[in-house]
C-alpha cells in the first residue's frame, strides 16, 4: 500500500476542472493506491493512542463527508476513518469498472487488509450497509462490530422514493435523466436529495446545505459521475435478485459480529418495516428505532447514533472478546426521535 497525506487528495486523482473536496476542521484526506483501485480516506487524528479502529462506508451518491458529523461526535472514542467508494467522493473509478456490491466490498476488503489496523468497527449506510454486510459475512476476521444505518437490503415492496434509484440502473436511463435535468441547478438537486433523505429537511443548517451544493457542483464536473451512479444503482438492483449463499439476507445470517441496526421512521428509501426482519436475521443484534429520522440518521441525529454505538462498544469491550451473544436475537429495541 502506498499512501500520501495532505490537506487534499493528490491532483492525479481529480481532473483539473474539479476542485478538491472540502475537509472539515480536524479532518484530513489521503489517497491510498491498491491493486486495481485508488481510494480516498477521510480521517480524524486520534485523540489518544490505542483507540478502537473504525471504518465508515457511505451510500449511493454520497461520500465520506456523510460521516463527518458522527466522526466528530465519536472523537476521543474511536480512531475513525471513512472511505470514498470507487467513483465517489475523491476516489476515481475502479480499474475494472466493477460497481457491484461485491466490487465495492472487494475494495473495502483490500483497504482493510492493506491498512492492517486489525478488526475494525465497521459502519455502513444504505448501499454502504449492503457493502458492510457482505464484508462482515465473507471476512469476519476484519470486523469487530457492525453498525448499519438504513442498510440497502432486499425488500419485496420497494419504497416509492427508491423507485427512481432503481430506474437509474436501467441502461440508458442515466443519459436520459441527464438530458432532462440539464437545466437543474446544483441547489435544486440538493434540495431534492435533502427532501428525500432527511426526515426533517429543516434540520439541515444553511452552512451544511451550501457545502452540499459546492460538493455537488464539484462532482458534476467529473466525467464519470453519472456512470458511477448508474452502475452502482444497477449493482444494488442486481444484489437484490441474488439468491442462495450470495443473497444479502443469507449473508446477514452469517454475520458473527455484534450488530447495531438503526432505522428511521420517515425513511423514504428503506422501509421502516424492514427493521424487524433485520433484527431477526442478524444473529447478534440490537435495534435502534428513530421515528423522526429519515435515511441518513448519522447526519440528522449524530449524537443519538454516537450514544448507541458507545453502548455497543462498552459491551463488546476493547479486546472484542465479549459480545452480546447471550441476548436473544434482535431483542434489544430502543426508540428515540430527537
TrEMBL record:
Domain named AB hydrolase-1: residues: 55-308
Pfam families: Abhydrolase_6 (PF12697)
Region span, Disordered: 1-23
GO cellular component: membrane
Polar residues composition-biased segments: 1-11
An annotated Gene Ontology molecular function: hydrolase activity
InterPro entries cross-referenced by the UniProt entry: AB_hydrolase_1, AB_hydrolase_fold, AB_hydrolase_sf
Superkingdom in the source lineage: Bacteria
Low complexity composition bias: residue spans: 12-23
Sorted UniProt keywords: Hydrolase
PANTHER family: HYDROLASE, PUTATIVE (AFU_ORTHOLOGUE AFUA_2G14860)-RELATED, MONOACYLGLYCEROL LIPASE
Name of the protein in its database record: Alpha/beta hydrolase
Amino acid at each position: 500500500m502506498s499512501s500520501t497525506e495532505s490537506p487534499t487528495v493528490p491532483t492525479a486523482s481529480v481532473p483539473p476542472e474539479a476542485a478538491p473536496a472540502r475537509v472539515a476542521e480536524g479532518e484530513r484526506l489521503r489517497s491510498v493506491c491498491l491493486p486495481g483501485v485508488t481510494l480516498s480516506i477521510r480521517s480524524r487524528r486520534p485523540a489518544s493512542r490505542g483507540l478502537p479502529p473504525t471504518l465508515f462506508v457511505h451510500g449511493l451518491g454520497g461520500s465520506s463527508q456523510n460521516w463527518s458529523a458522527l466522526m466528530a461526535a465519536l472523537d476521543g472514542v474511536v480512531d475513525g476513518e471513512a472511505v470514498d467508494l470507487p467513483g465517489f467522493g475523491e476516489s476515481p473509478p475502479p480499474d475494472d469498472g466493477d460497481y457491484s456490491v461485491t466490487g465495492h466490498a472487494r475494495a473495502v476488503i483490500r483497504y482493510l487488509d492493506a491498512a492492517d489496523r486489525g478488526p475494525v468497527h465497521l459502519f455502513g449506510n444504505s448501499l454502504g450497509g449492503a457493502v458492510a454486510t457482505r464484508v462482515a459475512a465473507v471476512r469476519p476476521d476484519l470486523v469487530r462490530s457492525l453498525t448499519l444505518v438504513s442498510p440497502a437490503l432486499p425488500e419485496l415492496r420497494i419504497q416509492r422514493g427508491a423507485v427512481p434509484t432503481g430506474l437509474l440502473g436501467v441502461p440508458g436511463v442515466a443519459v436520459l435523466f441527464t438530458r432532462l435535468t440539464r437545466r437543474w441547478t446544483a441547489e435544486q438537486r440538493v434540495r431534492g436529495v435533502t427532501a428525500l433523505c432527511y426526515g426533517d429537511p429543516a434540520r439541515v443548517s444553511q452552512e451544511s446545505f451550501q457545502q452540499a451544493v459546492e460538493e455537488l457542483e464539484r462532482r458534476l464536473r467529473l466525467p464519470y459521475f453519472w456512470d458511477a451512479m448508474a452502475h452502482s444503482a444497477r449493482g444494488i438492483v442486481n444484489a437484490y435478485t441474488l439468491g442462495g449463499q450470495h443473497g444479502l439476507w443469507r449473508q446477514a445470517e452469517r454475520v458473527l459480529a455484534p450488530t447495531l441496526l438503526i432505522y428511521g421512521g420517515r425513511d423514504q428509501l428503506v422501509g421502516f418495516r424492514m427493521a424487524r426482519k433485520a433484527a431477526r436475521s442478524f444473529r447478534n443484534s440490537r435495534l435502534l428505532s428513530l421515528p423522526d429520522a429519515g435515511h441518513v440518521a448519522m447526519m440528522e441525529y449524530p449524537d443519538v447514533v454516537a450514544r448507541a454505538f458507545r453502548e455497543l462498544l462498552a459491551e463488546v469491550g476493547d479486546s472484542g472478546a465479549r459480545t452480546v451473544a447471550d441476548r436473544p436475537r434482535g431483542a434489544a429495541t430502543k426508540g428515540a426521535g430527537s
